[in-house]
Amino acid sequence: MKVNVVGLGYIGLPTALILARSGIEIIGTDKDSNLVDTLKQGRLSFEENRLEELFKEACSSQIKFSEEYEKCSLYILAVPTPYINESKKLDPTYVIAAVNSVLDVCEPGAIIIIESTVSPGTIDKYIRPELMKRGLAIGEDVHLVHAPERIIPGNMIYELEHNSRTIGADSVEIGEKVKELYSSFCKAEIVITDIRSAEMSKVVENTYRDINIAFANELAKICRTDEMDVYEIIRIANKHPRVNILQPGPGVGGHCISVDPWFLVGDYPDLTNLILTARKINDSMPRHVLGRIRDIMREHGIRDISKVGLYGLAYKENVDDTRESPTLQLLKRMDEHLAFGVKVFDPHVKKRIVDHQFMNFEDFLNEIEILVIMVGHNHLKDFHDLIKDKLILDTKNIVNFDKTYKL
Ligand code: SAJ
């Protein structure tokens, strides 16, 4: 069997590699020629636990990288699905373009699996019409499938193998065929459903998490006003067998949880009160962090914002992915308040992407009086001796020294 994986980003690349390792012939396609060259030279484009090892194993099997689409009978599309800032609706441009490129070359009866997260109804609204315009009979000439990914950055390889999956198809027969393909690497349950349910369940999963985090963040704000320990309260509440509150933090980043709920808000503006409020609460957290920094500066008579250092630029621990990161959100807010000069360091982000970004942790520490922990990278554990006497604002609840402040 030959499979063309289209889009070699955070989802497409690990998926292509794990399929190749399972013995399936893979063509990985991306329109970014630099990325294709990098992969051809045996170098990875992003950091991920166990990805290097998987890359080596896959490259010794049947995988090739190309800018071209391949003629075959099975395609997996993992291209970006951003949202339009003003309307909060999904921007389907990349998926539509990828589907059309596939249709230009695919074999009759090909299966096109869309893995990218899409808002409910996207395939009916935007993809089926593309096939119909070409006079193709859906379910005969071409089959559409939606198999949303669920893997978490930082633990992608493990989760590719162990997370349950959803396959949305127009017929059980096609669903079963795709299930067989995914069974080559996925050891967990694979559920077959219709396309709309698959689209909706994916968005619902991430929205559920966003709302739960918003609840934790709101509790953190309530507890702050009356000096209660939000972490202790959540820890105790979670001992109840049916309570599972997530953790408060400096905001919600990443390309999933902070994005997907907007699809529902964009499509159902009159019905999404809770979902919209949760989004607003999570988006307000960088401002809350800024307030906490101001409190600590006042208390200690520190006037110069350049004495503040933000630890972490990634959107979460132990990854180098900075998409929608709370630190970038906070820096934007500081910029709007003309608070320039704050120092930044992230051990995983090796490229300079913001002003005053340090590449050496000790140089960074030497320049600052207040350390703001925005991300709980494991890296910090090796430096407790260096930071224990500093003023610290720990937004991730990972250290507890004498001069540590919490969210
Ligand atoms: N966060 C909190 N408090 C928490 C947990 C997370 O503030 O208790 C923050 C994180 O710091 C981060 C953001 O939320 O900024 C999102 O992080 P995450 O680890 O919860 O999720 P993602 O975006 O890395 O990955 C999610 C995963 N979804 C769920 O856990 C439901 C993953 O399984 C999905 O595949 C992925 O989104 C996706 O692609 O949709």
Describe it.
This protein is α/β, with parallel strands linked by helices and 407 residues long. The protein has helices at residues 12-21, 33-40, 51-59, 93-105, 122-133, 156-162, 172-182, 195-225, 230-237, 260-267, 273-299, 326-336, 361-367, 384-387, and strands at 2-6, 25-29, 63-66, 74-77, 110-114, 142-146, 165-169, 190-193, 308-311, 343-345, 357-358, 370-373, 391-394, 404-406. It has an eight-stranded mixed β-sheet with strand order 3-2-1-4-5-6-7-8, sandwiched between helices. It has a six-stranded parallel β-sheet with strand order 11-10-9-12-13-14. Strand 5 (110-114), helix 5 (122-133) and strand 6 (142-146) form a beta-alpha-beta unit. Helix 4 (93-105) runs parallel beside helix 5, helix 8 runs parallel beside helix 11 and helix 10 (260-267) packs across helix 11. The longest helix is centred in the middle third of the chain and has 31 residues, at 195-225. The chain is globular and about 70 Å long.
